[in-house]
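fyi for ur records
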Amino acid sequence: MKRILIAAMLTLMCIPYAQAKVEHLLPRVHRYTATGGEGFALRRAITLTDSTDCEVLKELVTTLSGLSTEDCTTTDTGAEAKIIVSIVSEIPGAFNHQLADYPDEAYNIVISANAVNISALTPIGVLRAAQTLSQLAIEADTLECAEITDWPAFKLRGFMHDVGRSFITVDELKKEIRLLSAFKINTFHWHLTENQAWRFEVKAYPQLTSSASMTRFAGQYYTQQDCREVVAEAKKYGITIIPEIDMPGHSKAFVRAMGCDMQSTKGKEILLQVLEEVADVFKDSPYIHMGADERAISDNTFLKTMIDKLHSIGKKVVCWNPISGVNIANHKFDMTQMWSTAGKKIAGIPNIDCRYNYINHFDVFADLVGIYKSSIYYEQQGTAEVAGTITALWNDRKMPTQEDIIKQNNLYACVLASAERAWIGGGKQYIEVGGTMLPNSGEEFDEFADWERRFLLHKDLSLKDEPIPYVKQTNVHWHITEGFPNNGDANASFAPEQSLDHTDYTITPVTGAGIYLRHTWGGTVPGLYGNAAINQTAYAYTYIYSPKEQTVGALIEFQNYGRSEKDTAPDKGNWDRKGSRLWLNDEEILPDNWNNSGKTISNEVDLMNENFTARKPLQVTLHEGWNKVLIKLPYVAANGVRLNKWMWTFVLTDTDGRNAAEGLVYSPTRYLAPES
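which gave:
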């Protein structure tokens, strides 16, 4: 049993608070009871006793104390303060559901004046406790005396990168694993092969990763040593990697390299060798994902051959759900990953909910609300058939840099919103019912506002160097009018353009920086007006109180340009292809020039500044006092756009767009009440 003397206990993060407490924890814990007393003082000699030898806990109490590992002693020097880890047989009151090869993560922490006692059922529970302590110790002098009992509602909480279409460097992947694990993410789904490129080195078939076989980011792939580095990083931080070799769907890169179809006799022989190498590199991965969707299965032995092979080498098999023309229940899959509305739970095996968590289709604000509010596949906590959720990033459309991929898809906010829901459970309604609207008040509003507060705190801490476009939106209030029939004429003018005295039309109060009147998926995911009919015009308006005249940034967007779309960019001088317009203090605000305006678009044309996340915020001037914002929202045919959304985004920020502008009040009634 190792005993390590340290001089101080600090943390990976720092904030300007003398004593950070439980209200900063992300995800929030299930049970926290303050027990009173003077607290556990930090920055003093502390003895750590941990039979699990948790590396993250050790780093917390050694490296961050200012001592090197070599300077720490393995003997108990009698320090008064102690951190003691115990593996126990029960954590009273904790919930667990079974998922093969995912151990119980429950833990208990008791903090008193001179002792921090950590109890857990497994070493992974000790790691989760260490992650909680790390957040509790945020630039704190003292840990409040308390007892914490915590556990995940859902066993699997993950994120996915499609590196077949794009390419994310090893250093970036390792950084994301390290940063996201601090918030109890425990799964990384690594989608390694696609039509554009095969990114996993196969020693037996080096032509798979040749530049000639790739159509995007040619020559960029992961060596087996690269993969082992990522595996080691994930293991250290308690993250399970699920590597995916997509078979037989999206396999054009394979065909170019090998000269045969995956379902041919030769193709199957090659894949059997590939799986041997995948299993060897990913020894610590209990599951291998074989994709299997979006391609008709023409060889009725294909699935069985690949499943049997993976089982024979000790791996469980995950597939996408649904698979075209295949009854998944007739095959020996060990877990499915549900995608789209068509993905349904398969009885008798675990299923991952990924149905509406494709963030390549998300806007920055409204969709995040929707996924946070939503339950996970209608369940309040995990079951034998609902394992959890994965936030999936499918970047079909090429982007200039990996930072664009992270920022334009709002990766960190989306993953952490979804992962907190998976940790705490609950959610009043599934997103198919609850939609993406943030209530103006009430329990759901309060819960989201609390998540937002904690997320923005951490955005400025451990995530301060990451490209995160999300800013505070819970204080942004609007009135939205009814839709006025426009007969397909986006230029048709209606009463709100002359007066906001709404005696002649109805208004609805709404809250948020991003609002869908009609969602991307129409009536499947409700917007404010459900599956709204085309050819009508609505207006949104608010007044913004500024305590002084000032220049601020404005994040503005109408048609959110999905990262899986080949949508035509707006014409010069237009915000979108529907004729949306915006006025500030009765002066029209026009967009900057679009990089892709006038171009013929394919998936290989870089998505540039069509979304606000890829451009600098527009600089606008607020008067001292009240400022009027009026937005015109025609919903008409949008030529060159596949998914014709009816929506808007508007929020004011500092001039660089990093944070919401301070001291502003958004009030469509010009009511100057202090914001809570």
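Residues 1-20, 66-75 have pLDDT under 50 and may be disordered. thats all i got for now
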